[in-house]
Amino acid sequence: MAILIIEDDPKTGDYLRKGLKENGYSVDLARTGITGLHLVMENAYELVILDVMLPGLEGWEVIRRIRLHRDLPVIFLSARDDVNDRIRGLRLGADDYLVKPFSFVELELRIRTILRRGIVRENDTFEVADLKLDVLRRKVTRGGVEIALTNKEFMLLHLLMKRQGEVLSRTQIASEVWDMNFDSDTNVVDVAIKRLRAKVDAAFNHKLISTIRSVGYSLSSEA
């Protein structure tokens, strides 16, 4: 798998290149946006890791030009942690946005997940009955009232809503949300569903999350 890193900080760039090579990837490193854009147009990369603040050509403009010609996964890796920056990056076509300082293990996991699933452009918002989820703003409301969720709870609800009406097994949920093989001795999925129900369904007469005995879980307006 060939990956291009566009990163002007020498320490970060060299660290990423070394770590990804040790994990079996073929890696090129560009120090400027202009050089990185040239390499994207001249080579067949499977994924680009892109900084925002680059000399000559900022990451925003780099991804805008990439999207005019190529459709390949792009992960922003930036010190800019404002939610509006994240929203901007995703709206420009990024597949993920990771904030510095970062965990290399988490970055490599996100890379594997993106490469495994391929390029998927999802909806920004989902709605089931009076439950609404905004992916970019990481915001969930029901009946107009905002609901605070942990990161895993948000990922779980996002999965259930984008697959609304489908029955998802515990194995499917564990793989998508925790990137793990489901162990029958582990009740992590059941515990997470219980906590999610307490926040999303408990205060409402109309329940949206259903348990399908011996199979898994489903979210639907018909629940």
Can you walk through the features of this model?
- The protein is an alpha/beta fold.
- The protein has two domains: 2-117, Rossmann fold; 125-219, Arc Repressor Mutant, subunit A, CATH 1.10.10.
- It contains eight helices and twelve strands.
- Strands 2-1-3-4-5 form a five-stranded parallel beta sheet, sandwiched between helices.
- Strand 8 and strand 9 (145-147) form a beta hairpin.
- Helix 6 (151-162) crosses helix 8 (188-200).
- The longest helix is centred in the middle third of the chain and has 14 residues, at 104-117.
- It is elongated.
- One of its GO terms (biological process) is regulation of DNA-templated transcription.
Characteristic terms for this protein:
223 residues; Rossmann fold; Arc Repressor Mutant, subunit A; 41% helix; transcription; Two-component system copper resistance phosphate regulon response regulator CusR; DNA-binding; phosphorelay response regulator activity; WalR-like
